[in-house]
Amino acid sequence: MQTTMLKPVIKLHRIDLSMESKLQVKMNSLQRGKTITGKSIVVRHKKVHTGERQFSCETCGKSFIRAGHLKQHQVVHTGEKPYSCEQCGKRFGLVSKLNRHRTLHTGEKPFSCEKCGMCFAQHSALKSHEHIHTREELYCCDKCGKKYLHKDSFRNHMRIHTTENPWCCDQCGQGFTSYYYLKVHRQIHMDQKPHCCEQCGKTFTIKASLLKHKRIHTGEKPYSCEICGKCFNRSGHLKLHMRVHTGEKPYCCDQCGKRFGGEGALKKHRRVHTGEKPYSCDQCGISFTQNSTLTMHQRTHTGEKPFRCDQCGRTFRQISHLRIHKRHHTGDKRYSCDQCVKKFYDSGSLKKHQRTHTGEKPFACVTCWKTFNQEGYLKIHQRFHTGERPYGCDQCGKSFHTKNGLRVHQRSHMGEKPYCCDLCGTGFGSKQSLKSHRTIHSGEKPYCCDQCGKTFALKGRLTLHQKIHTGEKRHGCDQCGKRFHTKADLKIHQRTHTGEKPYCCEQCGKKSTTLCTHKEHQRIHTGEKPYYCERCGRMFRVLSALKQHQRIHTGQKRPRFSCDQCEKSFTKTSSLSQHKRIHAGEKAYCCDQCGEKFTALSDLKVHQKLHTREKPHHRIPTGEKPDPTRTTCIKQEEADDLQDLSSDEQPGVMGGVMSNYQCPLDFQEEEPA
Prior knowledge:
The protein is an alpha+beta fold. About 45% of the residues lie in helices and about 10% in strands. It contains 24 helices and 40 strands.
């Protein structure tokens, strides 16, 4: 009797279940739980709370609540894709994915947002979109505070903290947090990049990367910061930028404790501890920690500069350099110093400038321990120790430590003098030369020696002068042992042994040892006298003659330097040094033809003329006949000029000789040999 009564009940229950399966499952979030219609669905739903997963995968061990879910999962391992699109031929493992794909061809978007009217092809996409209006983020990470709309995205994120990588590549063994990343990775082994940019030809493994790349060409930046208004072409870049305003740095280094705003920055930082440089140049072998740095380095070999300014046509290797360059056209100096209100185009220049206020010099030379406030200055300084001169002139072969030094030198070949003095009109090849020249007009000497009080117009001149007080002479001559403060002084001195005179006058053929002496000699032909006395207006060719003349107005006597052995005095230290060689019996200057030695260089020069039979004095051919009525004695001021020219070229000339020297008047406009 009971069985006959149960049969219709069971049958009726089955009808209800079949009808119920066609209905939508109603789940409303309540305080006490969820109300679900349908007994079988209740049973299935309880397994979510109990954690019961009775259907397990034999391949990877993953378990599921439903048998249908297991069946769908096994397609991942078998690679089976039985469902094919009849229009494009693309295959799928699940019929639901095929149905989703078909909407791309039909353009059907049946699900629309009630607030903004935006349409979607999938109901899940509509649900994700609706969270934008409500700003609801359902899943929050308790470790870093990051929030997600979807459970799958949240689950993949949690694997970053647990270092769980359940999806493994069967070729290289690399693990991934999601199957999607594994799928993208497999295309690297297959060398497959099916998505190609129509404008530049660059290929990508996934379509999403291609869509993001196209924004570079279109200039589209749909993601904007609500605080500063800066726009970005990727949402991820906007998220990283927002941490600049909030100060959020959720990623921490487990070795040094340093925190970072992005996961990529943390990965790059960890290579500092490990010393890992996985990216190597195939031409020079230099290794780098980042692939982007390698790409920029390779452009130094190829000479490629893909980023071009549309205003001036200048090209750059890096897009960041192009962005900074464009600010020069617009005048956008967005970085300001809070101490002197000076503004800069980029943050790097501001940081370098701020070190002038703080006095910070973090870059030190390991050879001499000299410190610098910029890394570029340190690199240039180290070339003086190594002797490296990477920049060579293609016309004369001369090489330089810096690119700017080569650029200034090349102007001498082209005759280009872009920097002009606004007072006298003299042109110069470099800005520094013009700056040095202006001190002649202004008389400004802001750099003062703290030991003797002597002032200088340039800081470099003061640095060289201070070596006199310290007695530092690190540059020595390998032939006579004489030592000098600077390398330039040593180079000039070595010409006394070699007899080299690289500077030749185009008008009379006279050769000079130094450029300074050559320029002073040329003033004889041009008649230029740039040094003038402010009291009487008298003009002079050389600065030393002006200084000696000014003593007439001040009543100051010329300083005397006395010998400590014979008490003989001299007006110049060079004359005293030459005199001391007589007591020491030192004869540093030797004739290369007969071997005779001399104490002074001037004596050697006079002696060498005996071998060449050269007359000691000759008249400059001007086309004019000499005036016999003119006196044969040089005027006192011309004697001063002659003395200074001789002493500047050869420091060994004795001061007492030139004061009594007499020669024909026609020679008064020529330097002594």
